[in-house]
Design goal:
The protein has 8 helices and 5 strands. It has 170 residues and is α+β, with helices and mostly antiparallel strands.
Amino acid sequence: MFYNNLKGHIEALLFVSGDPISTTRLGDILNVDKLNIEELICQLKSEMDNSDRGLTIIKVAGGYQLCTKPDLAPVLEKLAQVLENKLSAPALETLSIIAFRQPITKQEIENIRGVRVDRVLNRLVERTLIKEVGRKEVIGRPILYGTTEEFLKCFGLDDIADLPALPEIE
């Protein structure tokens, strides 16, 4: 079948891109309809997952991305010997508040955390995990913050709706 030849094309496009690519974009590049692209990606992912290959395809941030299999992380860490640039506890706390309550103002975050968050917000913006998504329609028109596509990629989410539900407080 003609479409089987396109698996290599899809794999190459995902590899070269590095970032997630939508099925619509892949279809436009390869001149193939979206449904066939999705089927080809599904077949390619299945082939990759059912073999000893080191790569797989994940759905993230509204598209598909080629990545290494999670069980290879220890080997890759040894190769790279990179110090992880982890978020501090206050940054993670602030980021989680934004993720679950977005859009949210700095004042609302500070009311929840009980401390000032200027520096933490600046750091999260610098790392492109959050961004300004608008202004609240109140006096002073404070900035509203929300998460970014980079946040989705970092946490392996396809959509913000994929966040786990918060536990009920009794």
